[in-house]
């Protein structure tokens, strides 16, 4: 039975070590991305907008359209879209 425990222990250790290596790689990549954003910012680009553009590029057209429609609905309901009055404004 101790042989089976040894195999399980070795497998567990291998999984843990792989995850640790991947976490380190992830940190390195995150640092690289941060450096690229820093470089872009130093060149005058708005990194907040760049991040939004990257997020939008990850979505398909249908998903973006649905989100835009919902956003427009919410903004309209709050009176934040010029020319689109709220119910209170229309009642007045």
Automatic annotation (TrEMBL):
Can you tell me which residues the record assigns to a coiled coil? 5-39
Domain named GapR-like DNA-binding: residues: 8-79
Q: Which domain of life is it from?
A: Bacteria
Which Pfam families did the record assign? GapR_DNA-bd
The Gene Ontology terms for molecular function here are: DNA binding
Keyword field: Coiled coil
The record's comment on protein family reads: Belongs to the UPF0335 family.
**Name assigned to this protein:** UPF0335 protein FHP24_15520
């Amino acid at each position: 039975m101790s042989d089976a425990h040894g195999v399980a222990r070795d497998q567990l250790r291998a999984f843990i070590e792989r995850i640790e290596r991947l976490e380190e790689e992830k940190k390195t990549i995150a640092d690289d991305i941060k450096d690229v954003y820093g470089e872009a910012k130093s060149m005058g680009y708005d990194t907040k907008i760049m991040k939004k553009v990257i997020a939008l590029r990850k979505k398909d057209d249908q998903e973006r359209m649905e989100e835009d429609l919902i956003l427009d609905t919410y903004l309209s309901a709050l009176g934040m879209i010029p020319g689109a009055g709220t119910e209170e404004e229309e009642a007045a």
